Amino acid sequence: MSVDTYKKTAKDFTFPPNLDDYDAARREFTWSRARKELDWFGGHLNAAYNAVDRHTQTWRKNKVALYWEDEAGNEKKYTFEELSLLSNQIGNILKDFGVARGDRVFLFLPRIPELFFGFLGILKIGAIAGTLFSAFQEQALADRLGNSEAKVVITTRELKLRIDKVRKKLPNLKHILVVDEPSFIKSLAHASTELRIAHMDPDDYAFMLYTSGTTGKPKGVMHVHRAILQEHMTAKWALDLRDDDTYWCTADPGWVTGIAYEILGSWSNGVAAFVYAGRFDPKKWYSLLAKYKITVWYTAPTAIRMLMAAGGTLVKTFDLSHLRHLCSVGEPLNPEAIKWSIKVFGRPFHDTWWQTETGAICIANYPCMDIKIGSMGKPIPGLTADIVDDAGQPLGVKKEGNIAMKPKWPSQMHTIWRRPAKFKSYFMNGWYISGDRGWKDEDGYFWFIGRADDVIKTSGERVGPFEVESALVAHPKVVEAGVIGKPDVMRGEIVKAFVVLEPNTKPSEALKKELSEYVKKHLAGHAYPREIEFIDKLPKTRSGKIMRRILKAKEMGLPVGDTSTLEEY
Ligand code: WTA
């Protein structure tokens, strides 16, 4: 196979990169030596303190940490000191409501500043922060808030209406704080800015994220305060953040990228971050890159492909000469997208690979390294990654297998909330098995092939087929549903549902629309099926499990493979 390589030359570097010799770092780096990158309280630490407060003891105190703008053009900015004080105030308010160490406090907010200092405030008092993507609807909220037994939710007036619908099902939810209610605004203004930051054991929980697998309800992936060590180092190595950067991570803190690289790892490096609280729009995005003179940009392949589709003329009307480093995450970064970025920005996107469960970047293309276009790059220093077979045996080069890592890296999830058996199932023969398939080449570059399971990645967002199937089945006209990710040139995959209707229901285009809307309204705005097909019967195993693999093969016109365990097909 011929591979295009983007060779780095002097013109690729505005500055020498933070990681200037990958091979030497692989040989010499140890996590214990990297401890000094953080501020510790003896053997304790607090991830939020390391992200923000420690900078207030330095010249960065009055440096802008957050530039913020919304769709209407409202602008705000906050220094590190302001973020520190505001998060102290939120911490104090939560304490007044009886929130103690280990309690779960969820943020159900759009990307407004309160989301950022709220997150920090929760961690600072030793509580566990959870984030909920603002597209979630009642079912998704009930599942996550119910399973986590959240005590407090911080939200807005508009989003609260969705929680109200399921409040009865949430006996542990004691308080809902509404950030745009006058009473909250007043109590925030009056809250003390002084707070004793909780000194946490590095293995104490800091935040949790619900993520989807193939089966069952979403699971609560638990991350600890220590995770910030790897988030900090990878923000330095892979994102190459420096003090004079203005950095834009386009992710939402409802997902892991927004937590690790829009709050913790990025601010820990003292960088000025820009956050846009608006929807994707090519012209708007280019104008923001230009206006804020963004230097480092971390985004996702779907957004890049959508920018590509918007054409080359538009981009030329903006001065984007400040961009110096581009990174991507969340789904396969196709070679065309990299080639396009070289053409229009004069720089390649650097792919990074990781997962909610890994807590931070694990495999990446670094500024100092040539890019084999289409490859995800190489494992970070301090982490052993390999390709292993289904029994956990390393396979060597150029063989397809499971992308696996040797536990334990600092940002590795600690458990799955209340599901220890599920947590255990990730590990085999001394390896963490990621659920992704790939291969590595003779130079140690990793290449992504696909998921080993039925998890859907649509526009970079992770969707569990079971959640969508359950939402569809709740509709009175639906008997059964099987949901798959259908390959899509723009979005990577789209959610496609195969639906079996009640015997007396007539299939129609209007009904397809109704079902899509139903999922959008009850489960989540981003997880609804963009395509629905009515079907008489779903392929199932003898034990009654839906064979999504067969639906997918059929959809793609591929051979259906081994059907010996099928009920009948
Ligand atoms: C996929 C997002 C190809 C993969 C940080 C993984 C990728 C899942 C890449 C995790 C990449 C992430 N190339 N696929 N560079 N990065 N993925 O938990 O399937 O939302 O298992 O975490 O996204 O998604 P999650």
Automatic annotation (TrEMBL):
Protein name: Acetate--CoA ligase
Keyword list, A-Z: ATP-binding, Ligase, Membrane, Nucleotide-binding, Transmembrane, Transmembrane helix
Start and end residues of each AMP-dependent synthetase/ligase domain: 57-406
Pfam family, one: AMP-binding
Any GO BP: fatty acid biosynthetic process
GO MF term list: ATP binding; CoA-ligase activity; fatty acid ligase activity; fatty-acyl-CoA synthase activity
Record-annotated AMP-binding enzyme C-terminal domain positions: 467-545
PROSITE patterns documented for this protein: AMP_BINDING (PS00455)
Positions of transmembrane segments: 115-136
Domain of life, per lineage: Bacteria
Top-level taxonomy: Bacteria, Candidatus Gottesmaniibacteriota
UniProt key word Nucleotide-binding: yes
Homology family: Belongs to the ATP-dependent AMP-binding enzyme family.
